[in-house]
Amino acid sequence: MSTKNKILDAADVLFADKGFNGTSLREITSQANVNLAAVNYHFGSKKELIKAVMSRYMDELSPQLEAALALICQAEEKPSLHDVFSAFIEPLLYLNEFKVNGTSTFLQLLGRGYTDSQGFLRWFLTTQYPNVFTHFTQAVKIAYPELSTEEMFWRLHFTMGTIVFTMSSSEALIDIAQNDFDNKLDIAGVIERVIPYVAAGVAAPITKHN
Amino acid sequence: MSTKNKILDAADVLFADKGFNGTSLREITSQANVNLAAVNYHFGSKKELIKAVMSRYMDELSPQLEAALALICQAEEKPSLHDVFSAFIEPLLYLNEFKVNGTSTFLQLLGRGYTDSQGFLRWFLTTQYPNVFTHFTQAVKIAYPELSTEEMFWRLHFTMGTIVFTMSSSEALIDIAQNDFDNKLDIAGVIERVIPYVAAGVAAPITKHN
DNA sequence: AACTAATTAAAACATCTGTTTAAAATAACG
DNA sequence: CGTTATTTTAAACAGATGTTTTAATTAGTT
After folding, report:
1. Rounded alpha-carbon distances, angstroms, from residue A205 to A46, A83, B65, B199, B208
2. Is residue A43 part of a domain?
3. Domain span holding position B122
4. Is residue A65, in this structure, part of any structural domain at all?
5. Which residue of A has its CA nearest to B179?
6. Is B158–A155 a contact, with Cβ atoms under 8 angstroms apart?
7. Which of B21, B122, B204 sits opposite A22 (nearest CB)?
């Protein structure tokens, strides 16, 4: 494997586990069995490495999500909100196969990106991959046309928060759940449970605001 | 004002804004206009300072939340989920008055605590303030008795995620919303919008899992 | 094989981190 | 006032951080 990919793989896991600020380049390079200077040689800086780790996922995910959402928008029957959110499941789970050792860390990284480093990652994603967002809001608008644009803005961000936060602490939660309910569970099981939740949240009746 | 409080106030704002890892003691002490060594003198270590910042909020909030939830549980009429979640509003907004310069940073700090520092803050809160959690689950069980304990466990964590995540990035979101919809909005307005969302999410119909 | 370009390696860089030390200043109390 | 105790100060500590430099190695090309 190339040095570049060895760095990306190690950074991926460590960033997801300990955050961007919480992971040093020395941890990454020693985990990857490469020289410390290799990061700055291949990526320029730590910030660029973070972008590269995220881009590896987004470049794979973005077209798939857009395709799935486009399919829903063009369907004959009016889609339900459950349909819209379910469109995310397959592409997200597909990331896991495409990863070597089990589950992908993408959603955990997304959670890190929202809180770590004062939102520079949010800027990166919304400017580099804007189509995912616009297609998504379009799909929701078809499924729930009564919802005003502003109300939708908020509910979509609530949803984003639910998903990202849940996945970024999913390991700990799965551990607790398995202890308390001795119910075998994995990432797919968590997703199965969160979809009805967010669908119901977005579909909540509209309330007046003064 | 005492040195101890000057440190707590400065740390509060900086921790909320840049995270626990992202804030150095030197930033805190220079913002607070006190000597660097004062932190270790008064609190012992940075970790203890973090606990102190959180305890200041929790010691104020915890009894109020428990009282509000107890009131709901003992009411004659069966409370709705909306009632249960609304019980959080007043105590949370009360934190703002009790703060000098505007809105409290409590929920932002809570968000930091879940992602930063590998969940040691979650351990701290659940062990130091367990009653809030048990009272809350009791209230939800009364409002929605059909929900199994496991399903409730998940939905409450989804809710936690929604709230915490939303509030930890509320400033940025409010900015965006005000630009796009020129609608004056503050923290209270965001809370007003998130309550129906989470209430609907928790109240979502039960789905079979294999 | 010989020369050039790309990569790796070890070391040093300056800066920042939390914490500790020891002296100075202030407060409290008999 | 004089004597403790408490608090503040400046300085230094040891270690970690991202980045750069310079030399050694490897790969690619003619």
Report:
1. 45, 18, 27, 11, 24
2. no
3. 53-202
4. yes
5. A150
6. no
7. B21
Query: Residue-wise pLDDT tens for chain A (210 aa)?
Result: 899 999 999 999 999 888 898 899 999 999 999 999 999 999 999 999 999 999 998 888 889 888 988 888 888 888 888 888 888 777 887 777 666 555 678 888 887 877 765 666 777 777 888 888 888 888 988 999 999 888 988 998 898 888 877 877 777 778 778 888 877 777 778 888 898 999 999 999 987 765
Q: How far is the CA of A26 from the C1' of D19 (A)?
A: 12
- Structural domain includes residue A16: no
> How many separate domains does chain B show?
1
- Tell me the shortest Cα–Cα distance from B2 to chain A, in angstroms: 30
Q: Which two tokens stand for residue B49?
A: 């300072």
Domain CATH number, residue A125: 1.10.357.10
The residue type found at B199 is A
Quick one: three-class SS letters along chain B? Answer: CCHHHHHHHHHHHHHHHHCCCCCCHHHHHHHCCCCCHHHHHHHCCHHHHHHHHHHHHHHHHHHHHHHHHHHHHHCCCCCCHHHHHHCCHHHHHHHHHHCCCCCCCHHHHHHHHHHHHHHHHHHHHHHHCHHHHHHHHHHHHHHCCCCCHHHHHHHHHHHHHHHHHHHHCHHHHHHHHHHHHCCCCCHHHHHHHHHHHHHHHHCCCCCCCC
